[in-house]
Amino acid sequence: MAALVNPHIFQTRPSAARRWERACFGLFGAATYLVLFCGAAVFLTIVAKGSRTIFKAEAPFINTTFFTDAPESLYVFEWQGKKLEMGDREHRAFIEQHPDAAKVKTESYIYAAGGIFPCIVGTVLLVVGSMTIALVLGVCAAVYLNEYARDGAFIRFVRLAILNLAGVPSIVFGLFGFGMFVIFFGWNVSLLSGWFTLAFMVLPVIITASEESLKAVPKGFREGSLALGATKWQTIRKNVLPYALPGILTSSILGIARVAGETAPIMFTAAYVVRDKLPWQVEKFSDFFFQGVMALPYHIYVVSSKIPQNEYTERVQYGTALVFLLIVAVIATASILLRNNLRNRYKW
Amino acid sequence: MEPSRAAEPAEFLTGRRKFHLFGLTIDECIKVFFGGNAVVSVVVLALITIFLFKEGFGFFGLNQQSLRVYRQAGLEYVDIIRAQQDDHTALTRYLSDLRLRQFNYFTQQQHLAPAEANQRLAGFDEFADRFGGAVGPIRGLVSDLTETVTAIKDKFTNTENRKEERRQLLAEGRTADAAKVEITAVDFAAELKPLLATRPAYVEANAEFARQLSAVIASAPAMPIPDLQARMDRFKQLTGEYLAGFPAVEQKLKTWDYTRPVPWYQTVTSFILGRDWVTASFWQDWYGVIPLFIGSLMVSVVALFFAVPLGVGAAIYINQIATPLEQKLIKPAIEFISAFPSVVLGFFGVAVLGQALRALSQQPSLAWVPGFPFSERLNILTAGCLLALLAVPTIFTLAEDALNNVPRSFKEASFALGANRLQTIVKIIMPASLSGIISAVLLGLGRVIGETMVVLLCAGNRIAIPDFTAGLAVITQPVHTMTGIIAQEMGEVVRGSIHYRALFVVGLVLFFLSLLINYVAQRIVRRYRISIG
User: Fold this and answer.
1) Which of A150, B174, B425, B504 could form a disulfide with B56 if both were Cys (CB 3.0 to 4.6 A apart)?
2) Predicted ipTM of the assembly
3) Which of A164, A214, A266, A330 best tests the B interface by mutation, with the highest count of B CBs <10 A?
4) What is the pLDDT of residues A289-342, one digit of tens each?
């Protein structure tokens, strides 16, 4: 009370403008925290529900079969007063033992039992292949743009193309991959088609990231090398690329997250709804490249749209979503952390 | 000095001979190699265009043929009468709505028992029955004609299949087999004769129909309250308009001519302006992009409605207001949100958000919100909310960059003139970075409109133009989108069919839309950039 009666002369007095300012800043802050809250809500819901699938109460605490088995149908039936849930193989063995069980009313849910091993394998294969292609193409393109090219109509055109390529919707890449690789080249639904489709999709990200890293290498490095009589290529190889490479790789990790996370481009080019064989179970080596694979994002799409929502299917839905989210999240976090780390590492 | 010595190059200038490949030195080869990789992006962009065109362009020819058959086989003729019948059905729907309102009035305002209310409505029901029954002769005619024209179309399709078979046999070199394939050309004039012969019968039925309707309308029962009476008058007026349209329909049928050619532009306009996307129908397939385009647009508008204030607000907060610690923590967190795979968000919508929003909408305290309560779990709103979450990081990052690029001196000058922080932000920093913020919003729009999995899983996938008469409540209706339709139907169509090609044309529309958005965003940045000098 005393403060109000006899305020200090420099104390700011409450005014309408100040109240406005407070209120508006509050609103901006609220917007920020609302975004964070929504992100956290999505993330935590999936973590909370999905962890019931991938963890369990007894040792080794991780549901290993979920990571090592293939998806199979789930059978639910009542047997001698107890409710039993079994995967496909287990159920068949059970029926052989108890022939009566075949007559019991049984509900079956497709894909709701087993694990997601083939999907993880397929996603890893897709990511590795497409990132290899994209890195080779992207880094070379960036080296050209940053080291060799002189500003001109052609370079402007290339830059414009990269910029526009970045904005093309992923489903259009899927259509393009389907039209070109699957049909025109006759590769059918295969790893190879998926690799190239995804690689082209992520190319702008890689080029932009690589160019930024190359730009960060000081000009003096190049000039010094050239002054000592090295050729252009020697300069690039010895004095530019080694310093730019960490930056290129860390920024490209964000590209990995993008490749792993996209569903639309692989829907018609590489992904199968279900496949019994694992990718390395092929007759001859060349078949490896021309086989379709199961992939995590497509599997999530299948289990969330093609099967009903209930307590039995929920486990595999949330479990798959959590595994996928964690993989992508780890990649993305690694990229963000490494990038922040890198910023402080080289100081020229 | 001997002249030969002078011609020889000095030894120190070149130690060894340079290696040449196609007339290029190694260094030049390397340069060409790198340059080649840079060209890949241009090539890919060109290839996308080429392949979308290559697969999609055939659509227009096929569609024109489909439209021609639609006319020649008489389907168009039957659809004219059918439209008349459908308008009548719409009128009967109006009547049943009126009945419901009366029923509610009796039970809720006058507190009558349902049975009693129904009894009071007996007169109205009889009126409605007579109104509904009047269409009988027309309906009978339409169903007869439907059979006739479907038979003609089937015959034509058969002939086309035979032709295709023969073409294949010829291509395989089996001339003898090919000669055996019988092809009987469909004589549309002869086939359509029975159809056109029903004209007098139609005119007669129509006259009877009109007479009955007029009689029914004249004996319309009175309504209990003025509000409902006004609706009844409106109904009478609508019926009057409907009846007035009859001569036009008859005239249309009279002048209808199956030989009238289908103009080439109609195949394009029927795609761009077509209001129906109907596939695999026994009657006629329509490929109109309007319902899908409107679906995409509505979802994007809702998404941006949420994402723009949140994204820009967060960018301002982080860039201008937040403490360094907040900046350090929140920026990566929002970037992290951008890494959420869209299919996971779609799954979240199906499993959690759809249900949650529906439950929220059914709270009695929220009934004032337009469109609440709704019963469709998956709709524009659900998809829009999730897409907003996808768009926020894009908008945030780009807008924050734009704010960052505003020179410090602007801010300092503003403070020096006595403006407070809010005034500085609103009057100085925002206008200075407006071009960047607008382009951020546009790129967010590009991201949202091209997003596939979220809308495929959460937008409800009903192919229809949403009912805009509902006002703002339109956002609680399900729609289908351009991206969603490609993802959903591409896997099931026959390669090379008209449907397959139509999907590629939709892809083409998306492609050029994204290029346009990109172009406009770049233009805005370049045009309105504040020169800092």
Assistant:
1) B504
2) 0.90
3) A164
4) 898 999 999 999 998 888 888 888 888 899 999 999 999 988 888 887 887 777
